[in-house]
Amino acid sequence: MRGKFIVLEGGEGAGKSSALSWLRTELSHDEFVFTREPGGTPNAEEIRNTIIAHREDDLDPLTQLLLFEAARREHVLRTIMPSLALGKHVISDRFSAATYAYQVIAAERPELKEFFDLIDANVCDGCAPDHTLFLDIDPEIGIRRKEGSGDRLNVFDEKDIAFHNRVRVGMNEYFKGRSYTAIDASQDQQTVREHIKRIILSVVHGTQP
Amino acid sequence: MRGKFIVLEGGEGAGKSSALSWLRTELSHDEFVFTREPGGTPNAEEIRNTIIAHREDDLDPLTQLLLFEAARREHVLRTIMPSLALGKHVISDRFSAATYAYQVIAAERPELKEFFDLIDANVCDGCAPDHTLFLDIDPEIGIRRKEGSGDRLNVFDEKDIAFHNRVRVGMNEYFKGRSYTAIDASQDQQTVREHIKRIILSVVHGTQP
Fold it and tell me: So what's the ipTM on this one?
């Protein structure tokens, strides 16, 4: 039986990465494949490095969009679809929602909406998440958390609060009409983690959504 | 006055690179900017490395298309358009025609035609070559030349003759209705070079096409 495809999304400092580290210790690696975007294949990880690097010549939002979709294409073909076909469940740190929220809405390029839809549909070729968990947090709180964490900041972390507020708006817009659960990520860490795990297991066992 | 944008295209072994090396010594660097695709900016050169690298996981043609267009976006924004605006003439080793010929036609993905048109139009945003020089050669002759040259072969050089024949068909299809000159690249090297130089100067002086 085909596995389930579950995505975790969230703004900066929502605790997505630490929740994923915890889930890796909680869920069986015989049943679950953990992966991330951009990345998840050697070529896609190389594209990731180009995207998040700090260089003199900042990437145009359209360039970013094309690079994210290029990495996604490899990820879908080489990692996600083969794993699902083997009956494994795939948990991905980010997927299409992030491209829409960051490169279209937060980058203030609404003219790219249809363009994104068309490219993403071709790239994913029917491979859509069965469910997405959205770790939602007020960007003011998220950024403060991230700054306090000692994690290295990437090119997106360093954007201003208005940018991160637009990311949040974009995420909510993207999820409208799709199968997702928003989780209040300002709650204590363990509550959030247990909630995520509960949802994942219910999706896998077909009791949700 | 805005400079002219001139592109050189050609199949493997058509002598494009050596003709460009010669042109660099013939044409004034005050007037002409020499650049290449994929490449022409630090980010685009990094994307180039991802595209031409030999890895275990071959890139899907759609991934290649997206990467070429991502590199082109940076090239157009950071190098080509600013140079033209300064009144410099830009000579590029390859541009959009190659993406169409290699990733759509030679890769046998005709369903990507409209997709390519839309992405390329958004990426170039009106920045089209004033003229293209197409160094045309029978792939049988071109590949034999290239193999004899001692040049390192890349991932595209190693494709079979049928692939290179399709590239040639794709190039001819792309140029239909556009401003270009096909040059018989099986002629002796100096004849071809002088022909290229003559056309470039006539485009720059507005006497051609």
Answer: 0.91
